[in-house]
What does this fold into?
Amino acid sequence: MNKFEQLGLNESLLKAILDLGFENPSEVQEKAIPLLLEKDTDMVALAQTGTGKTAAFGFPLIQKIDADNRNTQALVLSPTRELCLQITNELKNYSKYEKGINVVAVYGGASITEQAREIKRGAQIIVATPGRMQDMINRGLVNIKNIDYCVLDEADEMLNMGFYDDIVSILSDTPDEKSTWLFSATMPQEVARIAKQFMSEPLEITVGTKNSGSSTVSHEFYLVNARDRYEALKRLADANPDIFSVVFCRTKRDTQAIAEKLIEDGYSAAALHGDLSQAQRDGVMKSFRGRQIQMLVATDVAARGIDVDNVTHVVNYQLPDEIETYNHRSGRTGRAGKLGTSIVIVTKSELRKISSIERIIKQKFEEKTIPSGIEICEIQLLHLANKIKDTEVDHEIDNYLPAINNVLEDLSKEELIKKMVSVEFNRFIAYYKKNRDISTQSSDRRERGDSEPREFNNNGAVRYFVNIGSRDNFDWMSLKDYLKETLDLGRDDIFKVDVKEGFSFFNTDPQHTDKVMDVLNNVQLEGRRINVEISKNDGGGRRDHNNRGGRRDSGRREGNFAPRREGGFRSDRNSSRDGGSREGGFRSDRNSSAPRREGGFRSSAPRNENGGSDRAPRRSESFGDSSRPRRPRRD
Ligand code: ADP
Ligand code: MG
It folds into this structure.
């Protein structure tokens, strides 16, 4: 049997391949074709130029297209007109024994109406350059709303050529359920970003050695104040609900301490360092491989042998003493052709080390800002929504449904969705309005006060949180007007009005603070009392930060409540409050050292150093999986 046959290709393709004179599949073809034929999946394939990528996606594409259906089923995007024509030609060759398949090339510099006419005649496959494709979409000359397959060929080249926005816009015009196949010689950050944004759990294949100067690892740093290091780590974990990471610390003591803190705060973490016995280390590694641990906190020495695929993030909680060590650390991710991110949490005094590392790894770092509470909220909510969507129903539930329906039957679908998601959202908002952002930036932007990032750096202004928003029919202008009138202030006295759905932020100069608090807290809006508070995101005002706050946990902490790692908000909460009770936000119901990954919504609030957990009401009151058996604590 010929090797192409073994890949699962059908008769007409085998015949065409014979005509082409291909004797054996190339490596990328051998790897990609069976996977793509077998099921509908997203795929990222990295292989050097000239390795036969066109056939790697072309053969399965031709085989999967329904020739009897004349609707457009596939879109191939390619960077240039030449490539576009070349691919079209290849695809025509591949499909020459398959009756009824039409491939149309769409590219700039030729008549758009003629191309549109060809498509109208029935083109199952369109091969296009992004610019012309966008053009055609804008003019309504093409419909890609129902395609099944989208191929991004030579993705790195397309992005090099500045087609990022076009690609994003074209992809948003395609259905979510399609399969996306990304082929590229290299994996620069922009390509990884596209993959992250538009693909779901892509299969990843890499062929040959990676092109030098490129890598499957992207490097990011986050500048924070030293005291915010730990908080930053938690937020990064919260912003990446699927994180599977190795967190590097410099000393055994720090390693142990950070792991313990994370566990206390409800994360599935464990420490790996030389003070553990061999048996302990084996146990930790087994849990990590089994993914019962999401964050493995390790010393460089202990992590040396770690060879675990699918690590999504390496986190440099502290930079190593020897910057060469950085390479060893970041090499724990981006393995086996998978994409990975190496993150450095860095303080101002360490910034120059970043440049030194850049020289060593011959790659640039991207400076990022720690996600704000609101951003984490968005991420977690989407994660929650997806989790709900993907949850398989155990029919045991049927027994309980009558009672549940009894309670909920009067709610419309829309109301029900809103309420379900608000179960988490409300808590978060309650937390967020009392919390501050911890971002800082390496440039002197903050000092200069220009280009201010959202919700911090207000140059002495006071930022407020108010519980009215777009739900109350405000946009930023109308809210500004409303505040101006209610408070009898001038137009410029209210600024940075930022309206969210159920709440908003705005700023005033400090001299108006008393008035704002007095007046606004005593007015009603359509019968509802307005609540205004000074936001902790008050820019320069980090004085209120009190990480040593020793409020005790008011509630009992029940261990290992929900298996971690799915949905639910967790611990984006710190101990920055300097008093007052804290409700809402992310909280923790769990503190097992290795809760299992699958299962209910997880949530965890940070505990303060005295062991108190600023916890919100228990998750099981709302969304948790209290019906599940609790797992015994491991520690
Ligand atoms: P790339 O993936 O870099 O775009 P192409 O798909 O354009 O590479 O293929 C490069 C060349 O190799 C083309 O001329 C193509 O016809 C040829 N080719 C592809 N697959 C095979 C094969 N299995 N055997 C022989 N030649 C092949
Ligand atoms: Mg190619």
The domain at 454-534 is CATH 3.30.70.330 (Alpha-Beta Plaits). The longest strand covers residues 217-223.
